[in-house]
């Protein structure tokens, strides 16, 4: 049955690529209110694709935000394992659009890479899941496992409604394992299994000064410039030499890393030259006292993402802005509580604020960190599937990004989670010219075909 599915996938590679192109043309940017119609169009595309390949009980399920698409195939029977696969159809904004070489929602193949927003994160990977299921159902008439597929539209805004959606359907979503295809590989030859992710607290600082913009010549020196105040506050969030976060209590709950996990991470070669090549920076940086790999995965961070306000046009305008703001996120590790970190951040920022301005702190998003048992049989079956498809054993490490639903799946479904994917570090995820390496897209489909079979062969299944 597996061989039939693999042959079908190879014979229909072009059709799968064309279907992915149709998916990528939908500008499903979840954070933009004006994209609501496009979000529904993307959900409809996923539902139609599920029905087309033979999934059943397909539905577009509303939430308080963007809908969740669900489909299932339970024809393998009660003694076969049930796999729930998660992905998302929403994408990041495309700004700055002028840096794209080709239009972000017009898929373009250059060489062996397909360029479009969402190509790697996560539409390409959702398409791989659909193509693998299609290959079994079309070629063999059945899958070796029962399959439940959940594709949501709010991952890029921290999945605020998905946990409640899963909790309401806990019995329907019951499964033996959860597969999340929303990450990447170390390089085209070396696959990767992530056994955890960092959480996040995303905050906004707002500084209000005068009632309106003022002439800097008339009022400069008489009132506090909100930008000056904001910059002073931001400068006190992180030590400029050690890169340690200075918020009191920030590190109190950081779980020590066990030596077995540290040894796994140490096997992954990551040098200063690698970081320079991937990023274009003159020299990498990070928290003092930790390796490059540890800084990017096992340690918490603080980053400023944007400082809107004031005058930013060409030329000059000598104005004291009435308002300044900054968006700041903190990536969190076990056992940091994002709600507690948000409160510590807010309290500290308010303590730094002078009484010459009004400072407000808003919480824009929270997500818990997660740790996955890489020894679980369902995870080790994925290691064998990756080896079969890519010809190399996978590396194991915690991911530096954030997937809020992992901790929720662990709490609600009590099933092992497998986090892997087929993107590459240089795919420009969340940046202009996002792309996916097409050989990995096709091998990813084959990996999933192998995985469905290998999971069915687990002892006790």
Structure explained in plain terms:
This protein has 461 residues and is of the alpha+beta class. It folds into 2 domains: 2-197 and 369-456, 3-Layer(aba) Sandwich (Aminopeptidase); 199-254 and 300-367, Alpha-Beta Plaits (2-Layer Sandwich), CATH 3.30.70. It has 14 helices and 18 strands. It has helices at residues 2-11, 13-24, 36-53, 123-139, 162-168, 216-219, 226-235, 259-266, 272-279, 292-297, 338-352, 377-390, 405-413, 438-456, and strands at 56-61, 68-73, 82-88, 108-110, 113-115, 146-152, 177-181, 192-197, 199-208, 214-215, 303-306, 319-320, 323-332, 358-367, 370-371, 395-399, 417-420, 435-437. The strands form 4 sheets. Strands 1, 2, 3, 6, 7, 8, 15, 16 and 17 form a 9-stranded mixed sheet that branches. The protein has a 4-stranded antiparallel sheet with strand order 11-13-9-14, covered by helices on one side. A 3-stranded antiparallel sheet has the order 4-5-18. Helix 1 (2-11) packs antiparallel against helix 14 (438-456) and helix 5 (162-168) packs parallel to helix 13 (405-413). The longest helix has 19 residues, at 438-456. The model has no long low-confidence stretch (mean pLDDT 95).
Contiguous uncertain segments of 5+ residues: none
- The CATH architecture of the largest domain is 3-Layer(aba) Sandwich
The tally of structural domains comes to 2
CATH level 3 topology of the largest domain:
Aminopeptidase
The biggest beta sheet, please?
9 strands, mixed
Number of helices: 14
Give the amount of beta strand, in percent. 15-25%
User: Per the principal axes of the C-alpha atoms, what is the gross shape?
Assistant: globular
The CA-CA distance between the termini, in Å, is: 17 Å
């Amino acid at each position: 049955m597996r061989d039939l599915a693999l042959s079908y996938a190879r014979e229909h590679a072009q059709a799968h690529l064309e279907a992915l192109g149709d998916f990528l043309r939908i500008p499903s940017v979840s954070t933009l209110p004006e994209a609501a119609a496009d979000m529904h169009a993307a959900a409809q595309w996923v539902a139609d694709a599920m029905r087309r390949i033979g999934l059943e009980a397909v539905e577009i399920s509303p939430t308080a935000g963007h809908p969740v698409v669900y489909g299932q195939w339970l024809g393998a029977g009660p003694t076969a394992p049930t796999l729930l696969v998660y992905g998302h159809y929403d994408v990041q904004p495309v700004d700055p659009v002028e840096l794209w070489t080709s239009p972000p929602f017009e898929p373009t193949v250059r060489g062996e890479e397909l360029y479009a927003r969402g190509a790697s994160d996560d539409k390409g990977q959702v398409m791989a899941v659909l193509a693998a299921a299609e290959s079994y159902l079309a070629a063999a008439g059945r899958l070796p496992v029962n399959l439940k597929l959940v594709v949501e539209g709010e991952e890029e805004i921290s999945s605020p409604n998905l946990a409640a959606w899963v909790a309401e359907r806990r019995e329907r979503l019951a499964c033996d394992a959860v597969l999340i295809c929303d990450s990447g590989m170390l390089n085209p030859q070396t696959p990767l299994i992530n056994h955890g992710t960092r959480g996040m607290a995303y905050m906004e600082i707002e500084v209000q000064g005068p009632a309106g913009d003022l002439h800097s010549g008339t009022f400069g020196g008489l009132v506090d410039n909100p930008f000056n105040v904001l910059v002073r506050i931001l400068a006190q969030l992180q030590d400029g030499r050690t890169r340690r976060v200075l918020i009191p209590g920030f590190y109190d709950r950081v779980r020590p890393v066990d030596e077995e996990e540290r040894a796994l991470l140490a096997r992954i070669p990551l040098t200063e030259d690698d970081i320079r090549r991937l990023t274009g920076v003159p020299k990498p940086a990070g928290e003092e006292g930790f390796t490059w790999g540890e800084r990017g995965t096992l340690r918490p961070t603080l980053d400023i993402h944007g400082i809107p306000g004031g005058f930013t046009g060409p030329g000059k305008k000598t104005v004291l802005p009435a308002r300044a703001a900054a968006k700041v996120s903190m990536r969190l590790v076990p056992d940091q509580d994002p709600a507690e970190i948000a409160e510590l951040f807010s309290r500290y920022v308010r303590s730094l604020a002078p009484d010459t301005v009004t400072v407000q702190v808003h919480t824009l998003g929270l997500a818990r960190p997660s740790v996955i048992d890489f020894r679980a049989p369902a995870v080790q079956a994925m290691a064998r599937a990756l080896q079969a498809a890519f010809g190399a054993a996978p590396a194991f490490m915690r991911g530096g990004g954030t997937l809020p639903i992992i901790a929720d799946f662990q709490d609600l479904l009590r099933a092992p989670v497998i986090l892997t994917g087929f993107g590459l570090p240089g795919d420009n995820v969340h940046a202009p010219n996002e792309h996916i390496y097409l050989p990995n897209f096709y091998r990813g489909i084959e990996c999933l075909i192998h995985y469905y079979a290998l999971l069915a062969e687990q002892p006790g299944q």
